[in-house]
Thioesterase family protein
Amino acid sequence: MKVVETDIQVRYQETDQMGVVYHANYLVWFEIGRTRFLEELGFQYHEMEKEDIVSPVLDADVQFKTPVRYGEQARVKTWIDSYDGLKVVYAYEIRNGNDEVSVTGKTSHVCVKKDSFRPVSTRKKFPALHEAYLEAKGD
């Protein structure tokens, strides 16, 4: 199973009055990790978008465990939890500056046509990405 790690320097504007990262920012960090994961596989979202294909989030599941604070460097670990040729589920683990697990979660995605939001088979439309997903997942 391929795991991609992405470092995030916590910026002041990402925190609340307590100096703790505001909960919605973890979803942004998931996206940063997911984008990096695709790049590590050799793909770019903007290349898919040139073909009028987008990959919206269908579902997000987040568990908050320990805060990440302003001034820390967080690390986002990203991997594929499941993939069936149409839907891909990414899993995430975010660790704080003390290397404690701060947040875990998953997001589900499908490729869809930009104009109609009708699902598109990754297996058929992007066979190289399909193979890369299978290899990264360990299938």
Summary: The two ends are 9 Å apart (CA to CA).
